[in-house]
Amino acid sequence: MSIEHLLDCAKDGNGKWKVNSRERTDLEFKEKLDQNSIRKCLKTIAAFANGKGGKIVFGVSNSPRYAIGVNNTLDEAEIQDLVLSSLYPVPEIEISDHPLDDFLIVQIEVAAHPKRPVIAIKDVQTKQQNNSTVLSQGVVYARRSGKTKPISGEEFGSILESRDNEIRNSIFSFLSRANEIGYENVAVADFRKYGNNKENVTLWLPATAAKDLNVIERAKLVQDNGADAYQIRGFVDLTLPSDKDPRKPLLPKKTARVLKEPITKIFGKWFPWNEQHLRKAAAHLGFWEHRRGDNKNTGYEPNTERPLYFEAGRAAIQRFANRNPDDFVDVVGSVQTKQNGTTRRTNRLQAQICICAESRRSRRASAEPTPRSALWRGTVANPLRVGMAGIKREEPC
Questions:
Q1: With contact defined as beta carbons under 8 Å apart, do 33 and 72 qualify?
Q2: Predicted model pTM
Q3: Residues of the chain with pLDDT under 50
Q4: Among 338, 352, 349, 346, residue whose Cα is nearest residue 270
Q5: Residue 317 near residue 278, CB atoms below 8 Å
Q6: What's the angle, vertex CA 349, arms to CA 348 and CA 355, rounded to 5?
Q7: Is 1 exposed, middle or buried (0-12, 13-18, 19+ CB in 10 A)?
């Protein structure tokens, strides 16, 4: 993909390259390219590696967004060393230069890591007068609505689950290949102990082949039509009628209806919810990384190839909404929905502050302190929440 296509840029009336692309889950823009900007990008590199990969483009100004190029380039080995010493498992990155008119755009492309999650293994700070921490040891990062944030518990669980599903799928692909070849015609080579204490490879053969095998004279790797052959002992049939499937599959429309009630309880009737919002939430949790689902949370009907949502996936989406409501809105909501949510939270906070003030005046008048346990029971609301814009703590009412 050309850099012009990636940036979706074109020259305006002043001859400047206007960038129309927006930052998203797989794209981020940076204006400067120096040591501090690379350090600030470490958590985004980790987030891309924990997702489906992504690109960081240097030389793009912010607000208004134009392609302006970079003034200098950095040693690729230096960038690789910084990534190697800061993140584990180490993400795979590729650095490339893209001339645009008389200036240079630099791109770092990050591949999705097959052994997620990628974790920060040390604190990293910027090199300037007022140092700031830009990477925190032990934190797993993820992309959400074009921003890099520490991962939520539900997202972390989905990464581990996605990794396990990839292992299971690779095993089932071997089973499928063995079924095509015929189990009586294939062999399995066990390399797990190879190289340790001079252990040899264990080769599992069908009895009919083993009795005629002359290892010393005719030892060689045999292929069937150019593909490796494997012996699989036993057979797994995953086909089940939907009414007997213990995973309890539902079609998207039915799944959205089932989740409508708990979603409404969390956000209220104003919050829109349909199959499209369901798909966004499931995709964010990694349930649709493969076209046919992950076979645990999502799947498809073999005959119609319509998508299905299993009970485990429905429960995971509900947990995501319940435990991380703000993140959930960022993932599934439109711009208007996010604005409505912010307005409602602000109005509710202001109302609760008024109730809190009235409660304090009442206590002063009665000279009877409110028991601490009442705060936990919800008798007296504590509306001030850490992280709300412009509000700092924070005494209980």
A1: yes
A2: 0.53
A3: 213-222, 228-241, 370-397
A4: 338
A5: yes
A6: 90
A7: exposed
